[in-house]
Design a protein that fits this description.
The chain contains 4 helices and 5 strands. By secondary structure, the chain is α+β, with helices and mostly antiparallel strands. A 5-stranded mixed barrel has the order 1-2-3-5-4. Strand 2 and strand 3 form a beta hairpin. Helix 2 runs antiparallel to helix 3 and helix 3 packs antiparallel against helix 4. The longest helix is centred in the middle third of the chain and has 33 residues.
Amino acid sequence: MQEFLTATLSFPAVLFAAALVVVIAFWLLVLVGAADHHSFDTDLDTDLAGVGGVPVSVSVSVMVAIAWFTSLTGSVLLHRSATTGTTRAALAFGILAGALLIAWAVVRVLVHHYRRFFPDQPPPSRQDFLGRVCTVRTGTVGPDFGQAEVAAADGSTAIVQVRQLRPDDTELTAGSSGLLYAYDDEGEFFWVSPYDRALDPGPPKPLPTQRRAAPGHTA
């Protein structure tokens, strides 16, 4: 136990021990809701170090923990050695550099595997609803008012603002189906047109294969 405390409070392990205390305090604040684990994402660009793709707080926390453990192991071995003076100081700085390098390499490998199994997905966009069929939820839909319910690709539903050019024949009412064909960025609404599900031919059917008659036979 005394050897562990001595190594922890000696250079370079003491540097990472102090950083580890800060990391633990930060995650305690996140746990109680006083901080957000995405707090530093806009301040640091971890892509340059090859560890982007995860929150900065996560990659830095893992790096600090690995560096602390590596430097602690090196400090214990250094205290058990018989080196002194300049050689001991040089080895201590070597442990510091090695701990940082090992921590960075391990985090980079972990992040690489994380991005491999969990690739970045583009955030959902209202443009994803274009071309989808919706169900009108308001009494009528006009050029200045209307709402409809539309289903996303993942099965979730959303209520969106819809507008219809003054119809000449078909008017959209509550429960009727409409097709979202355009989006107005300034007004933040979709243009919708009447849609008859009975007229939807559905996906194209494969053409039947024709069997060729064998030579010498007639159909």
